[in-house]
């Protein structure tokens, strides 16, 4: 049986559908990949916002 990399306790294997991971019930370690950096959406400039508004207004007038 594998040992926990944090506390050396035995690891438990968990499976759900076709995904399997290991966890430690003693210290809470879970072998789950995590992304620690947030990705911020690209901000829209005021000019782009006004252009989008006017384009939508013109499209509505054409209907």
Automatic annotation (TrEMBL):
**What name does UniProt use for this protein?**
FPG and IleRS Zinc finger-containing protein
